[in-house]
Amino acid sequence: MKPYLKWTAIVVGSIITVSHIGILGHVMTARRLQHPIVNLPEGDYSSYRIVAGPDGYEIEYRANDPKVLTSERHHQSGSTRQGIFGGGSSSRTEHRVDEYTMDGARNIDGGALVEEGKLGAENVECIVADAGARSQGAMAGTAISAGVIVPAVSTIPYVGWLASGWALLLGENIGSEAGSMVGGIFNDC
Question: In terms of pTM, does the model score above 0.85?
Fold first, then answer.
């Protein structure tokens, strides 16, 4: 046997041995329970509630709480009237509840309509066209990567299955971005 073949066999055997030990070590330690790290953004009007137990956890988060501020007014007036035909009295009670949004706009008939927050028909059409173009591009990118890239990377020992999954995801992402660009050009968005 030639010396360079001998050293090549030793190097390849060493790499395979180290790979096996690494994968076995990963599989043996991967079953540890890990607690999630939750970084909730906090603001002046945010609130959250976390309930954790042995079966899992539950998070309730509100980013803008209170969303609507209320103002209540209660007014009662009474008067005694002395008229032509004698005395009489009347009583009047008024109860009023107003709702305000945080920017101070009064809630009338289900909410104040702010013109700058609305989407025009052209914006809605562009959003719909972009979503369709992204979907079509993602399908095309996945199909191309499945036919061209995946067969090449799936033959890699030990990690071929993982690399082929990454190749599919990469093809989907690139196809989605390309579809969005082409759709924006054709739809004038």
Answer: no
